[in-house]
Amino acid sequence: MYLNAWLAWSPEIVLTLAWAGMLVCGALWPRTHPYMRHATLAALLIALGLAGLVAANAHSLYGLYFSEAAKLDSVTTFGRLLFGSAGVLVVLASWDVHGEENAVEFFGLFVLSLLGEVVIVSGQNLLMLFLGIELLALPTYALIAIHKTRARAIAAGLKYFLLGMFASVVMLYGMALLYGSLGTISYVHALFPDPSHLSAARLGVLQFAFFFLILGLGFKVTAFPFHFWSPDVYAGGSTQVVAYISTVPKVAIMLAIFRILGPAFSTGYPIAKWFLIAIAVLSMVYGNIVALMQDDVRRMLAYSGVANTGYMLIAIIAGGADSQAALLFFLVVYTFGNLGAFFVVLGMGEDRHITIGDFDGLARRYPVLALAMGCFLFSLAGTPPLAGFFGKFALFKSAVAHGLPLLALVGLVTTVISVGYYLKIASNMYGDLVQRDLPEGRAIERIPVPLRIALVLAVTATLVTGVLGIPLFLGAL
Amino acid sequence: MVPPIAFLILGAVVFLLAMIGFLTRRSLVQALMCLELMTSAVALTFLALGRALGDRSMTGMVFATFCMVISAAEIGMGLALVLLYFRKHGSTSTDDLDLMKG
Question: Within the 131-190 window of chain A, which residues sit less than 8 Å (CB to CB) from chain B?
Answer without folding.
Answer: 131, 134, 138, 141-142, 145, 154-155, 157-159, 161-163, 165-166, 169-170, 172-173, 175-177, 179-180, 183-185
